[in-house]
């Protein structure tokens, strides 16, 4: 087996603003692909329109920037036509959840074997600073000068509502965490949704500041790993417990709380109730959940399509178009 390095997947000079979160994610994607070990020509990177959707230009793989909001549709066609391709779908929060929201939920619902990456900076960057579907209520922007009067989408909630089988989250500035969830997404058979929290230094600077820096993540985020207790804090002094139908943060040693009282993360549980509660946690009362939050197996759309074609074809007299053409008299025109 040939060994690859991140350099084997690089192409061109990225044209993003200095400090843009896209730079961080691109480097992590290159590294993840190298560690996965699939040849560049075994990968396809497909995007829509937006700052993050320029990413295919910087990939030494099959790559295609398509039209606004349609990355999921094009990715579906690529995967069904060539099941051997590993397809990485790249979208921003505007491209993926506004004009592309319908395609997003149906790709997830169908469970097509795609790695669906949502780069979430809570703003329209390419069109110069309008609020997006993930911008918080009250957010002031060029298209909401007095603050938005609507609640945002939570990408996790959309994914779970569409019966998503895989959801993970990472911070763009956390390269090891990003690489880890990208590799997990690749290993998952089916639609894998990865939300990447990233910054827009021009129009929404500091939007994820609570977890952008390593020293802040220890107290404001929790890294979830399947089968491990849910601890967080600088010294893992805090944990999560169930309280009624909800969650609560506890401190070890207080009120008799011990490690045995802390919840164990189960990413493989088919019932997504607790996983969704984890995915929706927000500060300041709760840590932001990072890592693989949900990872369950289910039949995939692309496998089912090919199985159906083979089953139906086996019952037919003619198995392909060429055989059909040759059924009756033929002639050659010279």
From TrEMBL:
The keyword Oxidoreductase applies. CDD domains: TPP_OGFOR (cd03375). The keyword Ribonucleoprotein does not apply. It holds the Pfam family TPP_enzyme_C. Residues 49-196 form the Thiamine pyrophosphate enzyme TPP-binding domain. It comes from the Bacteria. Keywords: Oxidoreductase. This is 2-oxoacid:ferredoxin oxidoreductase subunit beta. It comes from Bacteroides humanifaecis.
